[in-house]
Write a structure and sequence with these properties.
Two copies of one chain form a homodimer. Helices cover 44% and strands 14% of the residues of chain A. By secondary structure, chain A is α/β, with parallel strands linked by helices. In chain A, helix 1 packs across helix 2 (29-36), helix 1 (18-25) packs across helix 3 and helix 11 packs across helix 12. Chain B binds a DNA duplex through helix 2 and helix 4.
DNA sequence: TTGTAGGCGTTATCAT
DNA sequence: ATGATAACGCCTACAA
């Protein structure tokens, strides 16, 4: 009773393995493995014994060992934009939560800089052996080629981008909201519009812009200008002062709320009243919009569920299914009308 | 020349291993391993041959296999708050970038919900076998006990929290800025203050609040109230209307810019002029503050480098060193004076 | 229903 | 300076 430490010989600093659980439970090591895999063919009594041992030892599986054997990592990589002005936090947490719910771990990698060393590490990370799939919240384009030049590729989903045969349905939600914004402003009596867009590389920005142009044309209205913005308040401010103020436009559709705040403040700074002279519509339902002066009309998008949806799309890919476009396309976007939109001045 | 496929037998869908690299280079598999480990004792010629083979096959190491053998994962976990109103994006990207630079991968895990399954997964993730260290941007408290009840623990750093013997120095930067804010307002002539704080569970919020109270007392000023906020614009709005408006206070120190925006708008909504009647100071240098009405006085904190610093602290722990407090404590916070602060009304 | 053998890709240890 | 062999912890296959 002194030579062999029996059940807990671990060198203090070492986690128990299935072997030690097995020994404590008086079974073989892969009976423990079966237990972990929730094999239904186990005798209830055995389950109990193993379960106790697991608990007593506070056993936790070694993920690396598992994935090496199963060739599945239960991990996805999420690629974040390098842009400092646009970081989709809610998207990230939504996607991460969905991933966790589905039993996946989430690696985040940034696209910042381009040090060779980092490129290499990221390249390694994105191998099939290291990650089951990739979810990107930033346009990828040729970056991908650089990161994983050849060989088998894991499934990739870029948020907001869809392949052709699902484009129509998938983008419908955003397009519909964009069209409704134009419609709302038109109903108020506006005829001349400006759109402050997001970067063209973002599918979502491009889509909104495209739909804006289509909607304006369809309704026989005038698009005075489309300003290329970068999601930032500064770009809105600039557009407000340099393009919109003094122009015949009376209605502005901004790519997001931060831009809209900039537009409004820019206009106010040169004495243009909002919404007296110009109406402004945002997109995101940033909390501040409720308290802004004037309170901002906007689109409430559930970024959390957008993130979840993006992950679901990836998950479908991982399961070998064709990813379905989000079904609840209807309820995804909700227009919120506040005081930043009103009828145009009666000339 | 037909039986053995020589150098690229991989089943189309399989990444090459060091064995295939070895075969192509005409060396043994752990000569390749040495190459990967940058072993300096290799003959230059051998290095060249292996290097070529690696490149030709686009070989990337299998991280799981490596970590299983080395018992190091080169991975850290970053824990994000469940709060939806406060998501430290910049902190995250700063920390992630620093981690990547140091050769570490980053897993993000949220603290959302409490489903047993998720707790289990997270618990597994946080094992030494799965992650080398943990960086948390949210208070952990007893959560930790729940997640990893026993056994060896990996090093943990909670952003903003420091152990006692470094507290003084580490917190100096924030405390100094907080004191300077009070000082600035006092210099303008203010005597009666309100602080709209962040959640007490956040070390940073608690520290600012504590220093606020100390600074006010030290200077013989009056703290009319300390309002418990939650980092949100709404909490600022509420504080502005319900506590500050109609009170004798003429100066407000808000926990962050979003709160400050709420305070200002709340005051304006009940006809209280800022800064005519009340001055408001923020914290964060949110871009919008530059364009706000009035432009917001605030503290510019480099969240990126704060995130980097947090990771460095963890890295020290990982290397077994005592973590040093940030050295550049001086330049970390920079007060920015804009129009939201002015002398109090002359009574 | 449970146990035994083998191997996943890598690095460590020992030879040579 | 390089090669052979074992081991990391787990799971899949097959045997009992």
């Amino acid at each position: 009773m002194s030579e062999q430490p029996a059940t807990q010989p671990r060198d203090a600093d070492k986690r128990p393995t299935i072997y030690e659980v097995a020994r404590l439970a008086g079974v073989s090591h892969q009976t423990v493995s079966r237990f972990l895999r929730k094999d239904p063919t186990m005798r209830p009594d055995t389950v109990r014994r193993v379960s106790h041992a697991v608990e007593k030892l506070d056993y936790r599986p070694n993920l690396a060992a598992r994935s090496m054997r199963t060739r599945r990592t239960n991990r996805i990589a999420v690629i974040l934009p390098e842009t400092t002005s646009f970081v989709p936090t809610r998207l990230l947490s939504g996607a991460a939560a969905a991933a966790h719910d589905a039993g996946y771990l989430v690696d985040v990698v940034g696209l910042e800089g381009d040090a060779a060393a980092r490129a290499e590490r990221i390249g390694a990370l994105l191998q099939p052996a290291n990650v089951d799939g990739i979810l990107s919240f930033t346009p990828l384009a040729e970056n991908l080629e650089r990161l994983a030049p050849s060989g088998p590729r894991v499934p990739i989903v870029v948020d907001g981008e869809y392949d052709d045969n699902m484009r129509a349905r998938a983008l419908l939600a955003d397009a519909k909201a964009a069209d409704e914004i134009v419609g709302h402003l038109a109903d108020l009596g506006h005829r001349t519009f400006v759109h402050v867009a997001g970067p063209k590389t973002f599918a979502s920005a491009l889509n909104r812009r495209t739909e804006y142009e289509a909607s304006v044309a369809r309704r026989g209205l005038v698009s005075h200008a489309v300003v290329e913005g970068d999601w930032s308040t500064g770009s809105g401010w600039k557009a407000g002062r340099e393009v919109i103020a003094g122009s015949p436009a009376t209605a502005v559709f901004a790519a997001n709320d931060r831009v809209a705040f900039g537009v409004i403040r820019g206009l106010q700074s040169v004495g243009v009243d909002v919404p007296g002279r110009v109406s402004v519509f945002g997109w995101d339902d940033d909390e501040l919009g409720r308290y802004f002066q004037p309170p901002l009309s906007t689109v409430r998008v559930n970024r959390e569920s957008q993130g979840r949806a993006a992950f679901q799309r990836l998950l479908s890919l991982l399961h070998g299914k064709q990813p379905a476009a989000p079904m609840d396309t209807a309820g995804l976007n909700q227009l919120i009308f506040r005081d930043s939109t009103a009828p145009p001045p009666t000339v």
